[in-house]
Amino acid sequence: MSESTLVAGQLFNGISVASILLLAALGLALSFGLMRVINMAHGEMLMLGGYLSYVSITLFGKGAGFLVGLLIAFVGTALFGALMELTLIRRLYGRPLDTLLATWGVSLILQQAARSSFGPVGVEVTAPGWLSGSLSLGGTALTGFALPAVRVFIIILAALVLAGMALILSRTRLGLLVRAVHQNRAMAEALGANTRLVDLAVFSLGTGIAGLAGAALALIAPVTPTVGQSYIVYAFLVVIVGGLGSLTGTLLAALLVGIFSAVTQIFTSVSVADVLLLVAVIVFLQFRPRGIVFARSRALEEA
Amino acid sequence: MKRCLAVQRLYSGMAAAALICSAVPAPSWAAAEGTVKVGVLHSLTGTMAISEVTVKNATLLAIDQINSAGGVLGKKIEPVVEDGASDPSMFAQKAQKLIQQDDVVTVFGGWTSASRKAMLPVFERFKGLLWYPVQFEGNECSPDIMYSGAQPNQQILPALQWAEQKGYKSIFLLGSDYVFPRTANLILKKHIEHDSGTVAGEEYVPLGGTDFSAVINKIKVAKPQIIFSTLNGDSNVSFFKQMAAAGLPSAKLPVMSFSIAEQEAKSIGPSLLEGSYAAWNYFQSINDPANKKFVAAYQAKYPGSPVDDPMAHGYLDVYAWAAAVKKAGSFDIEKVRKAASTLAFSDIDMGETKFASNQSLVQTAYVGQVLPSGQFKILWQSKAPVDPVPYDPLSFPGKTCVL
Predict the structure, then answer these.
(1) Average of pLDDT values for A123-131?
(2) Which residue of A has its CA nearest to B213?
(3) C-alpha radius of gyration, chain A, whole number
(4) Which of A10, A219, A226 sits opposite B241 (nearest CB)?
(5) Domain layout of chain B by residue ranges
(6) Beta strands B354-355 and B35-42: pairing type?
(7) Chain A nearest C-alpha distance from B268 (Å)
(8) Cα–Cα dist B34/B21, whole Å
(9) Residues of B in contact with A120 (CB under 8 A)
(10) Share of chain B above pLDDT 90, in %
(11) DSSP 8-state symbol, A91
(12) Contact A122 B234 (CB under 8 A)
């Protein structure tokens, strides 16, 4: 394998990392991007998804259990998100700093709950047989670089979730309401939109997607009580760099961050690449403080 | 009981003490003349708790066993357990509390190098003796610590020797980004070059890092024959999962880990690790009557729980201390310290071990392979117990440890 395959392989890895970041960030793009809720428990939603996937695999076996687990993780965390919205978040709209503290508390409670019910050591989630192989692309720049099936699966899943969210936001009645409420809450309310219901739906959809992401990411990462902490910073980073309230921005930011870190890792170590990435983000935000895609709306003007 | 002892100290020498004390229902050995306090200082909360709680359990088991066999110099050992909370400054605080407030005669504890480095000045200043149970990067030499965990020349270099015997010439060094992996790899590089092998690559990932795509890509380009891994904690789960996904399971590209023992194998998942190697100075599977007794006693108390190298050292430390006290005929720290480094092999009933004059343990090195059960099959062991060398002569020439 030559240097050129290293570069080609890193480009694929960049897209793979981007898809992981995208999955981790999409739910946050809804709760933080659209609703301004600084959900510090977002990482724990991913963690919950991982554990639900583990439970499903234990119940239904490795092959079917994983697929069923994706569904269970989505529904389970969406329900938990709904509970969180009804009991806590609902009382804190318009007070982002309070949501930060309250959801941080929720995240600590969830970590301890996972520790108490599943033990402090992680649980085992491994890829089902049909995902454990790799695809090889002969005759291209990637010759000799086997594409891990798990990573290809995560890229496809991220694309599907993104497409699904874009469709919901642009083509459905719910999406119309969400956009209306986002652009001008008072006017939407005056025109008869049930904003409370919309808030509930958006927040639980966001947590549900995080759960789904957590179940998928369990294939390549550990499932432990504290695993959420390793996603949360990057999820916020992607949403902020992308620009609040824009799915296109979130996608572009994930791609940018993923490929930037993969390419810098050709020349440096993982630690240095992380430093370079954060420096690049700080510099970038100096020039575009509102992110890649600047969504102009009344809500943003007020914020 | 605590109050009884405090009162007794206040009125020491007064006849009233015995009266106050006898009014409190307590075990007969609780009277101060009959007990001696030792500190047990590990992280019982926080990220390190997973590993350290089991060492604490093994330490307390040894104390219980010695007590039920009659104690040391006619006194029962009373452990004072403190929580270092995975925080080095908390370790320093608690160490000082144990020495000054609780008047312990010695302390068993510590895990991370950061916690040991934080406690060292406390033990130096207030004159205490710490028994440290975990393998570490060496490069330290203090009269106030008994180092029972392996020095680099007792774990890492024997593993290299084994790999070279097996014909692995090209080695990739991978580690978490902190002091132990960096120092271990520094020493390894010197020795690999000295033995005319090749270092195929060297990579570090932040502690807790979960993305190994680039590292694995670099490994594929470098084409090493074996990977020496000093990755710590959950990063191992991501690493082994992503290696398998990339078509490089341990059967294809062997991995030798220095931070995966029975406990970690259980939490990472033996199926991911199967076939990979580890180097330690103790495995649960060691076929030795003393070890079988230890494992049986531990599992009688904690059913189903695996036993590993740091636990065995935590257990051994208590027995070594007791043997040193007997030899010195006193609990005095200075006398115990001197006696500890002149014990004979037969004084500690845990295989062929004793402390060298530099206060590190002389011990056998083993290489094991992970089985589907999460246990290790022992493949190799050093011909004789290896003398500890705190400063590697190739990497740090001219530095020696003389106490």
Answers:
(1) 85
(2) A13
(3) 19
(4) A219
(5) 2-151+289-362, 152-285+365-381
(6) unpaired
(7) 7
(8) 13
(9) 49-50
(10) 74
(11) G
(12) yes
Compare CB distances from A126 to B208, B214, B269 and report the shortest one's residue: B269
| Neighbour tally for B336: CB within 10 Å | 22
What's the helix, strand, coil split of chain A in %, to 5? 75, 0, 25
Q: Does B251 touch chain A (CB under 8 A)?
A: no
CA closest to B266 among chain A residues: A121
Nearest to B261 by CA among B149, B360, B169: B149
Separation between Cα atoms, residue A72 and residue A56, nearest integer Å: 7
Q: Give the closest of B49, B210, B247 to A146, CB-based.
A: B247
CB A264 within 8 A of CB A277: yes
Report the CATH fold assignment for B152-285+365-381.
Rossmann fold (3.40.50)
The amino acid occupying position B251 is: A
A143 in contact with B at a CB cutoff of 8 Å? Answer: no
At B125, list the tokens: 């200043």
Residues 6+ apart with CB under 8 A from B199: B171, B172, B173, B188, B189, B192, B193
Chain A closest-CA separation from residue B374 CA (Å): 13
Task: For residue B10, give every residue at least 6 positions away whose Cβ sits within 8 Å of its Cβ, in sequence order, or none.
Answer: none
Q: To the nearest whole angstrom, how far is the Cα of A237 from the nearest Cα of chain B?
A: 16
- Across the interface, whether the CB atoms of A132 and B205 are under 8 A apart is answered no
C-alpha B240/C-alpha B251 separation (Å) is 12
Nearest by CB to residue B210, choosing from A16, A127, A221, is: A221
| B residues 204-233 lying closer than 8 A (beta carbon) to A | 204-206, 208-211, 213-215, 217-218, 220-221, 223
CA B54 to CA A95: how far, in whole Å?
44
Domains assigned to chain A: 3-126+142-302 (1.10.3470)
For residue A134, the cross-strand partners are A148
**CA nearest B106: which of B403, B305, B279, B323?**
B323
What class is the B2-151+289-362 domain? alpha beta
Phi, psi of A103 (to 5 degrees): -70, -25
Report the alpha-carbon angle B385-B387-B391, nearest 5: 145
Classified as helix, coil or strand, B338 is helix
Are B2-151+289-362 and B152-285+365-381 in the same CATH fold?
A: yes
DSSP state of B363: B
The mean pLDDT of B94-120, rounded to a whole number, is 95
Contact list in B for residue A266 (CB cut-off 8 A) is: 214
Task: Extract the tokens encoding B182.
Answer: 């960096």
Q: Cα separations (Å) of A227 from A215, B12, B28, B78?
A: 12, 53, 48, 38
Model ipTM value? 0.83
Least confident of B206-210, B330-334, B364-368: B206-210
CA A18 from chain centre, in angstroms, equals 11
Q: Which residues of B276-314 are buried (b: 16+ CB within 10 A; e: fewer)?
A: bbbbbbbbbbbeeeebeebbebbeeeeeeebbbbbbbbb
Question: Which of A7, A11, A230, A233 to mutate to probe the B interface, most B CBs <10 Å?
Answer: A230
- pLDDT tens-digit readout, B113-143: 999 999 999 999 999 999 999 999 999 999 9
**Sign of the dihedral through C-alpha A8, A13, A19, A22:** negative
**Tens digits of residue pLDDT in A21-37:** 999 999 999 999 888 89
| Environment class of A60 (CB within 10 Å of its CB; exposed 0-12, middle 13-18, buried 19+) | middle
Chain A environment of B234 (Cβ under 8 Å): 122, 222, 224, 226-227
Interface of A with B in 10-39 (CB under 8 A): 10, 13, 16-17, 20
Distance (Å) from the alpha carbon of A95 to chain B's nearest alpha carbon = 31
